[in-house]
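pasting for the record
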Amino acid sequence: MLLATIAIDTYCLSQGMGKHVWDIDAAKAPGIYLLSNISCTLALLATAASKTSFALSLLRLCGGLRAYIVWFIIVSMNIMLVLTALCLWFPCQPIYKLWDYAVPGTCWSPSVNIAIGVASGGKLSNLASYHDETILSHCLQSTLD
């Protein structure tokens, strides 16, 4: 998934992504925006897979209450990341207004997606990582004792 994200982003950059919106060829813009959304979705799914595989490794080291905590982290983190990925696709009605601004319709305020991204990628994700590291150190310590 991460390799696909890199390939999509590289192609989008060659088409003008990253330039000011006025400097992007209007004919290429819808394709760039659609591929950018696909890339973000794949990056979120890759993040979920990576964090889940690490947490599953923790389960092999932990037992009892710590295993339940790890399962809670796995489930809540995956729900959060999948909902974030879905929020990338549903802020506009009709949906193709996401990548073609000329289509009539309505979209959420950009601040809504920013808030979702900050909550998902920053605060909540770091909290899950902190708990994984804490549990890892406790599980390793109890294994070594």
